[in-house]
Amino acid sequence: MMNYKGYIGKVEFDDEQHIFTGEIINTRTVITFQGSSVSELEEEFRNSVDDYLEWCKEDGVEPEKPYSGRFNVRIYPQLHQRAAVGARLLGMSLNSFLIKSLEDELNLMHI
Predict the structure, then answer these.
(1) Is the pLDDT of residue 103 over 90?
(2) Which of 7, 22, 69, 107 could anchor a disulfide with 11, C-beta 3.0 to 4.6 Å?
């Protein structure tokens, strides 16, 4: 993963064309980049983010913020109950419990 100005890029290698291709993964707007070397890829990633921000400025559009910190999750009722009970047993709010659970899982993944 790559990170620049809060925008995160995911990279794959195209073995047919022998280039790295990437995409910004934390916006709804499709922003892509590519390069034939790591240094070129990093430069193109930064250029793509900067181009996107400049385009937004020129068009008077507010750039997408990578994330607001709020999201809705739909889960089945039994899991909702288990999570609420688990949070209460730990003396936590359901929100704090879910934040801690997500952080623990993401830390295991080193994200």
Answers:
(1) yes
(2) 22
